[in-house]
Amino acid sequence: MKNPKVDSTIKVSVLVPVYGVEKYIERCARSLFNQTMTDDIEFIFVNDGTPDNSIRILQDIIRQFPEREKNIRIINHDGNKGLAVARVTGVKAARGEYVIHCDSDDWVEPDMYRLMYETAKANDSDIVVCGYFTEAEECKGIHWPSLLSDREERASNILRIQKMHQFLWQRLVRKDYYDKYDFKADPAVTYCEDFVVTVPMHLFTDKVSVVAQPLYHYNCINPGSMTQVRDVKRIEAGKLALDMLEEFIVKHNHPAVLPALQYRKFLYYLPLITCLECYDPKRWLELDNPNVNINLMMRSRVSVWLVRHKLLAVNRLFQLAVRKIFKR
Questions:
Q1: Does residue 231 sit in helix, strand or coil?
Q2: pTM of the entire structure?
Q3: What is the rounded (10 degree) CA torsion for 129, 133, 136, 138?
């Protein structure tokens, strides 16, 4: 698919991958179609071979918004190709001046895209970042981005998830800028995909703005989401993504970002010694970088000490005791 030319009548293209979200797609779609932006916004849904009723439900909702239909497209993949490919499909099909992703199990505030677009135009921004709400059963939170002047500092804070977070859905990006550098994750990347795109995205421009309010609702209670899966497969997928990102950082000569990358890797590997569902201390020892300095919780520090001293059986008993005490 060739990238279409930007349509001057479309300000924002919202790109939504759809897979296994029949419980959530209605709320997402309604929040999109109720945006205060009207004819100057388009919605592109990429059906990534979803096996459930997500598309039928989406089509039912579309019929309830006839004024939006002309600016809604559903693109069908021939089978499940994964989130990275679905997002690339959406970007290639987009005709807007700016593009932004939205996950189909999340939802957005009514003014989100209007406020972000107005900020982009006022500051001639390549990227606009907004805050977001964390929606979870056990707790709710609000996350505020902080604008930092230095490119490498921004990239490092994304990797540390401090002041600037990694999510694509909180970033409105100029389409020409997206196309110029062809920001995308390798199709093999099935986890940490956002890091692989947003870190390079921030290393190539200083034209970044922030909307200082939360506009996106991040659903953390979807059991089918990759963020809810804790297993060795996910950790290996994260390793693949972060290794690719490391190659990019080295290739483009940004050594100041490498400590933050090693920090992120350490945290992704940590469940191999602290989580019984993916417990593999021998693999952790292969991946461990003892030079990374991280302020861990006490029980994690105990696990690191035990495994580094080859007390693997003791650490497993420790994890069983922790689970019994904290019931998780």
A1: coil
A2: 0.90
A3: 120
